[in-house]
Amino acid sequence: MSKFRLRRLGLADDPGNYRPTLQGCLDAVLEQSDVLIDDVLDGLRISMGAVGGTSQVAVATAQGKEVMALLVQRAPDLKQIFAQQLRNSMFGGEAARQVSHPLVRFDDFQFLEADQIDANIEFALTQQEVLMSVEDVLPVLNAMISNLMGWSSVQAHLNPLKPESFVHALRESLRQLVPDPSARSTVMGQAATRLGVSLRQLYVEVADWLRSLGVEPAITVSASSGQPAGEAPLPTTLKRTMLTLDKLRRLLSGELDPAQANPGADFVNTVPASFDALQDMRMVEMMMQRLAEKARKNETPPVAPEPAAAPEIQLDEANRKRLGLQLGEEVVHMMLDNLMKDARLLLTVRENIQALEGVLLRLSSSDPRFFSDRQHPARRFLDRMTHRSLAYSAEDDAGYRRFQKTFSNAVSVLCNGDGDATAFARVLRKLEDAWEREEQEQRVRREEAARALLHAEQRNLLAQKLAVQFRERIQNRAVPELVQTFLFGPWAQVVAQAQLGHADGSVDPQGYQNLVDDLVWSVQLRLARRNRKRLVQLVPEMLVKMREGLALISYPQERINAFFNALVGIHEQVFDTPRPGRDAPQPPPEAPVSVGGLDSTEDPDVWMVQSEASDSGYLDDRQRAPIQDRPSPDVGELAPLDLEHLSSGAWVDLALEGVWVRAQLTWASPHRTLFMFVSGNGLAHSMSRRTLQRLYTKGLIRLISDGRVMDNALDAVAQTALRNALNRDSDQP
């Protein structure tokens, strides 16, 4: 029986009524952090005695032994840091991990510093080692944790226990204790291998433990490995191409173009130290061999093989140009391959893109700016067309035939013409002019709706501040809960609306804020009984002003009547004969407490005036209905919905009145409390942050694209280059 189960988890022969929670599961795993580090240190101790090794990193060097000895000596510190980093990664999610190792992106690649490339290589190397160890047991754990999180289908990317959390914790722990990258690289591979073996055992134990307590795995609805929709999963058998990190950077920087290259610049001098480590780890790809083979097939002089000890060979002008052309072709092929596999793009859209292959290949050889300049007309054309195509989830959607015809005509013009940057720019300009004319009316409506939502956010934020002030003013006073709820909710909205409606900055233009003190006094029976005459004079005028103020925010008349009836019932107690010990006001039994505040089905932090809700198509959970129409298209697992980084242009499928509708995020408020989507028919659909999150949790909204179809396709090329740099040639001795 394993140490994990013996020490902490324990199988249950009879689960009884105990149901594990996600928090309990995470806490149980976090308790195993010391066990994981013990396993890593045990492996390092064994390596310290080795004369040589066949592991991925040569750990028997003197420097490696010194680093291992340091880690063994500082084992308590290592355990403490690892535990904290693991907790941060589990509960902080992807945002916490990206701070230290953002994924390399295609357009940023030419600007990366050496340490940034080192960070990408180091993290990818560690992640690959761990993933290879757990790939056979991870799907079961993903299914169990998805069930524990309340999902009916597997959502692997949401699993807090996914390997990336542990990789992040290990890498950050070693980085803090061993700041020198070259020294850290001597143990990183061995540490990752040991962590992977130990993590695999822990995954098995966690799954068995959950199963013994009655947790069933969620249903697997996709073969995807947990990556967001439209992104390629990280393969364990890496695709072999000639494209690697250094080759890609040379291509993007123009160094492989004799017309742009600087004869005095030597790329070898800019290669980061991590490439030397990659050479030592036998990770040099077969790029030069492939070029030589291609040259023989084309009956051209072969290119000499790359020396094993150098990260880059010196190429003359002819070979440099040929290498640049072939790398450019490979990037185009890989980019198109990624787009062809993108299930979000309809078949006819992909066919149009594929038809441009010849044009793009010619363009890549004649105009290297296609790769280095994201504003290149050809890239902008592809980006606009793929992005706009996501407005349609099926070929029979209204408007798709017209879009498809426009796309096909544009492709035909480009294929039959010069196909250069000028041609792409000319075609794109005509398309944008036509779109501008077609969407003029829709844009005006969107702008009006956005202004209404912006005002609503400002009022709601101000109302929250006023509610805090009101709470302080009635502190330690015997105010009925009914009245408190009214003051903190509807009346705070009234005062905020009045203040925002006066550009002169008046604090209380209609006296709505001063009414708070009168209302609070009137419901304190002990005080009101001392001056019944004042109460009789005060109440009629106060009710009139309250009704006037509530009309400003379109507060429902039935709620106003219910609240006023309950309030009058409290005031009538002032004229009753008080009984000992019963001075505290009590609302009538038939008056529910909620009548004075916002409805429980609404977002307590957001109130919409009727005109604002109408202009922006405001939605709340009460407008949801069972889905009767065709299901949302299968584009893989749900992509994570990061509301902080959800940007304008993102496409979603939204369930509206039982029908799936494709809509685009066109506006988000400055404080990201309100979001507005526009569907294909030009209608606005806005909602609060809370409603958006609820719909996502219920599966009634799903992210289709973050608005970066082309960028993601090219980023996948950069990721392939990164992974190829880590590819080990199994046939090489």
Give the helix level as a range of percent: 55-70%
Q: Which value, in Å, is the CA radius of gyration?
A: 32 Å
Q: Largest sheet, order of strands side by side?
A: 4-3-2-1-5
Shape: flat
Distance between the termini: 38 Å
What kind of assembly state do the chains in view correspond to? single chain
* Major sheet size, sense and barrel closure: 5 strands, antiparallel
Give the count of structural domains: 4
Which percent range describes the beta-strand content? Answer: under 5%
Total helices: the number is 28
The structure class reads mainly alpha
Q: What is the number of E strands?
A: 5
Poorly predicted parts: 10-15, 51-60, 95-102, 221-240, 260-314, 582-595, 624-638, 728-733
* pLDDT averaged over residues: 75
What can you tell me about this protein's structure?
By secondary structure, this protein is mainly alpha-helical. The protein has helices spanning 3-7, 22-30, 33-48, 62-73, 75-98, 114-134, 138-148, 163-177, 181-212, 245-253, 273-280, 287-297, 317-340, 347-355, 357-366, 369-372, 377-389, 400-416, 421-438, 440-473, 481-500, 515-522, 525-528, 532-552, 557-572, 610-616, 689-697, 709-725, and strands spanning 651-656, 659-668, 674-679, 684-688, 701-705. A five-stranded antiparallel beta sheet has the order 4-3-2-1-5, with helices on both faces. A hairpin with a 5-residue loop joins strand 2 (659-668) and strand 3 (674-679). The longest helix is centred in the middle third of the chain and has 34 residues, at 440-473. The chain is flat and about 100 Å long.
